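Title: Comparing notes on inverse folding

I've been comparing how different people in this forum approach sequence design from structure. To keep things fair, I'm posting one structure and asking everyone to reply with a full sequence. Here's the target:
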């Protein structure tokens, strides 16, 4: 009897504690910028060819319908929200993103965009990164109207930001066609330096707009995705030229981020080594429970890497066995492996620290 009372009291205290923690966690907003790796539906509202609004996209999403995500289910941004116990962010263009929902944050990402304004021009109407930042400004005005200028400023300061950008500046610009405008203008090392200097301006702007914790992902192994294996590889090996681009770009991105943090005097920017995160399962898919990392689950032609994933494409029965969902994008299961590293990875994966460390630090602040 007495032990029963004690256990009732303890479980009541536990519940109280859980409530306090959960409600404190719900305060943190999440803001997402970038390309198709994190777009959760903005392009569905735009007249663009870069869209994932037809089946089998979304086949493993809770609703089993396409949502604009370039995944069979959740993308990296969704899984971060889920792991933090937050509501999923809504696409900023959604008319449903109003009222209290603004406090959750917003997703400004748009498939096809890059660091450069000319990247993704072939997709017509997409939200280039400067436009995404403009919308972030607009968001802040709407939030201010709700909770006051000071409250909005604090909410943004205390928010978490994810920015995923850069791959398209290679695959959908420099290497889009032989003798592309950019490849005639720049040798690869000069192009990479130019991208990094432009990206620095963008990140500085994100900081100036109030962001104080920003996860910045580098590019994956672009030469190893099924699309590039189909287009450029002779024997199924990763394409050497795109791998060279990634190996030039990613270390310079890391250095640039270090420099920015030094300039600001605080670890605002966190470099996520997306290259290594992907490489682990690209090189050893079986160790992660995949049958292959070369063949996309959905597509056609060699490696299912030609064209887009459409209702007419080949479709694998079990998406959990494939590292790549479509010719360019990881499956939800691969996205979960990546997010696991974002949360708990060593400094080789997350520099200067991983997301669980960030959450612990910020909860004490
Ligand atoms: C890209 O566009 C934005 C705004 O439209 C502009 O501020 C920026 O300077 C442009 N970048 C380049 C490299 O032209
Ligand atoms: C990352 O997370 C793990 C556990 O969550 C922790 O033990 C480790 O020290 C962290 N590493 C860094 C560099 O923050």
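Reply #1:
Here's my take.
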């Amino acid at each position: 009897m007495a032990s029963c009372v004690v256990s009732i009291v303890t479980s009541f205290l536990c519940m109280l504690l859980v409530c306090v923690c959960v409600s404190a966690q719900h305060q943190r907003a999440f803001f997402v910028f970038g390309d198709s790796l994190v777009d959760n539906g903005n392009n569905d509202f735009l007249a663009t060819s870069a869209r994932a609004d037809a089946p089998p996209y979304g086949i493993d999403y809770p609703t089993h319908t396409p949502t604009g995500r370039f995944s069979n289910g959740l993308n990296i941004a969704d899984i971060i929200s889920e792991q933090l116990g937050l509501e999923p962010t809504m696409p900023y263009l959604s008319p449903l993103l109003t009222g209290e929902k603004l406090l959750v944050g917003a997703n400004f990402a748009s498939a096809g965009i890059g660091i450069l304004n000319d990247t993704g021009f072939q997709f017509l109407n997409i939200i280039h990164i400067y436009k995404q930042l403009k919308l972030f400004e607009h968001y802040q005005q709407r939030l201010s109207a709700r909770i006051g200028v000071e409250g909005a400023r604090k909410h943004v300061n205390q928010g978490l930001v994810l920015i995923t950008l850069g791959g398209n500046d290679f695959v959908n610009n420099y290497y889009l066609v032989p003798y592309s405008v950019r490849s005639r203008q720049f040798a690869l090392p000069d192009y990479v330096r130019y991208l990094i200097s432009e990206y620095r301006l963008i990140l500085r702007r994100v900081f100036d707009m109030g962001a104080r914790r920003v996860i910045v992902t580098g590019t994956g192994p672009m030469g190893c995705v099924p699309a590039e294996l189909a287009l450029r590889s002779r024997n199924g090996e990763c394409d050497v030229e795109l791998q060279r681009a990634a190996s030039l770009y990613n270390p310079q991105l890391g250095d640039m981020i270090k420099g920015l943090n030094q300039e600001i005097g605080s670890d605002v920017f966190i470099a996520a080594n997306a290259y290594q995160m992907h490489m682990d399962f690209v090189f050893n898919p079986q160790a992660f429970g995949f049958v292959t990392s070369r063949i996309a689950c959905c597509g056609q032609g060699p490696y299912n890497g030609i064209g887009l994933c459409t209702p007419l494409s080949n479709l694998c029965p079990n998406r959990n066995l494939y590292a790549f969902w479509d010719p360019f994008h990881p499956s939800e299961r691969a996205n979960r492996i990546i997010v696991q590293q974002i949360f708990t990875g060593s400094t080789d994966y997350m520099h200067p620290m991983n997301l669980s460390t960030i959450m612990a630090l910020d909860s004490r602040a």
